[in-house]
Amino acid sequence: MMSDYAILVVDDEVPFTEIMAEILRSYGLQTKVAHSAKEALGLLSDGVPQLLILDVMMPEIDGLTLMGQVKSNTRWDGIPVVIASASVLPDQRSAAFTAGADVFLAKPFNSKQLRAALRPYVAIPDTADLLSKRGG
Fold it and tell me: What global pTM score does this model have?
């Protein structure tokens, strides 16, 4: 699947998306953020990411409903989905995987857990490679 950018982060919590975008960009990944499912669908119609990071609990349209819309669209159905949720209840986790999630990350998580979750789906340069590109 041809991708226009690496990762789309969808979460209604602005501080979370800002931190995630900063971390992902530090990995050398082009990242876009959306603060609602509606905004995410708009960004998806403009370009296809390599991976989605979705929050479950969002107003209006929740992350699992958004994931269902993504998975049912032939243009987007191959995009891996990482669910990042503060809800760690077993039935919530089960519902995420049943709906098509590839990974479930319980908030809060650290950058090492994030990197491990993304590695099977997105090429992440090693830290040494990133430092050499920055001249340091």
Answer: 0.88
